[in-house]
Structures are given as structure tokens and as C-alpha cells.
Amino acid sequence: MLLLLLACPAPAVDDTEGPLVETDTGVALEPEAGSEGALACENSAGRHGWYYRPEGWNLRSVDVVVLFHGTGGEGSSFGQQWHATAEQRGLVLVAPDSRVSPGGQFTWEVGGPGDAPTEDVTHALACLEETLAVGVEPHRIVAAGFSGGGSSAPYHASLDGRFTGFGSLHGGVFPTGLGDNEVRGWFSTGEDDTLRPPDMVQDDAKGLQLYGWTDVTVEIFPGGHNVSTEERGAFLDWAFADD
To answer: ∠ CA(96), CA(100), CA(103), 5° rounding?
Structure first.
């Protein structure tokens, strides 16, 4: 359960990342310092996750990005790639760790048609709840996955009504395993990406549209199999465009 933050009037702050938190006590809150670190929740592989909360998160509702690392990665290292951008934009980051596949790789499991949500879903949501539990008031929540984590972003977002969008960056999607929460979708890759070339990513996006999802965006950027600052910024501009 989220904690209700009580205070009013709040000190004057920039309201670019979300509406001010409603307060009613006449006591002004001081902005909380930014923080980051390991999460306590643990999956069956003994892995955890990482979070980042920006300075002043207690003074407004904040946008949240749940990140899914690529195959062989971990939440903390992938989250650090987004850290500077999140700090600049005042975003909360949640970056869970995947389990270990039967082949020994750190990677994610996406369910098929009619399957119950995988353990990765349970763990990712536990990481989200732990990050918010100090009293963070989420404004919008999106999922973003890279490479092997790309298909997990639409999967997780489709299973939880709090999510408003997903980004599959240099990744794909398995439409038949998606849930009922149809959100906006973003697909992107590099023009020189040999692992996820533009044609493959465009086909994935078309497949999702054929499955009935209507609000789907595809963008191609310079570079190979990596997320550039330009690509990251364009995705976040799209994800958190004004309502």
C-alpha cells in the first residue's frame, strides 16, 4: 500500500515532471534527496534489482520507468545507463534482475497464450512496489526493455493496468502471450544493428498491430546494437508526452 504524503503548501518547485502532491496540513515538506541502490526483494535465482529515486520525489507525483536488461545483464548496470537522463528529468527507475535460464544465461521468460504470469513478472512487480513503498506517488509508469529484455517490456506492461506504455529497444514482442492492458507501444533499433535490424523490428511492430494493438510507433536511429542518448531521450519524450 502506498503511503499518503501530507503537507501543504509545498515549497515552490518546477512542475515539469508531474503534478504537485496534494497536501492538507499547512506544513511544508523539504525535498527528499535523490537515492539509488540495491533492492531487497529476491527471485528464485538469488538475484535482486536496483532502484533510483530523484531529488524531490516527495513533492510531486513522478513518472516511473521499469527497465528490463538484455541477456547476460543485470538491473544495476542497465539502470546506470539511464541514470543521468533520469536525474535530469526527475524520473524514478526500477531495474529488476532476471532469473537464470536453463542454458545458464541471465535472461527473461515471457509467457505464452493462456499461461499464468511468469515468476519474472512477480519479481519485477515486487521490485516496483519496494521502490514506491516509501511514499512515491507514481504519475505514469512505462516499461522499457533492451535486446533480450525487449519482449518483456510489452509483456509486463500488458499484465498490469498501471502501465501506460512500453518500449522495446532493439528487441521484439510475442503478441499471443500479451495480457488485456493494451497500451501505447514503441519499437526502435539502430540502422546498423545486425542483431535486431530495422526490417526485423518493423515486422515485430506490424505483427503487434495485426494482433489488434493500434497505437504503435517505430523509430530507427544511427548506430548498432546499443541504446544511444538520442534514442533514450526520444523514447522518454514519446512515453511521457503531455496527456
So the answer is: 150
